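fyi for ur records
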Amino acid sequence: MESKKLKLLITIVDRNLGQKVTQILREEQVLINNISLGKGTVDDTFLQYLGIGVKDKDIVFSVVNNSLIPNIFTRFQNDLHFNQAGRGIAFTIPIESIGNDQVIKILIGGKKDE
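which gave:
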């Protein structure tokens, strides 16, 4: 089934970097993205000790074809420096059952049949 090819990609970055994440995702042909505002819960003194500092976050939710994930993660590492502590985090969750075949085709970039 087509839905096994889909993942929900969740990316968490400092506030105002969500647009940069969605730009990378659009360049990688991921067109379904939603930015939500988030707020960290860690104490400010602890954040300063770790050198992180910013608690306000952008959380980007994206529907991604599984075959695109390796390239996206490479771009996040190269362009946004996710390999450095405190720069951001991204992970995927499988999408198992989301609707009929028409919905799945639209989510993976296909066109709706007339």
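The chain has a mean pLDDT of 81. thats all i got for now
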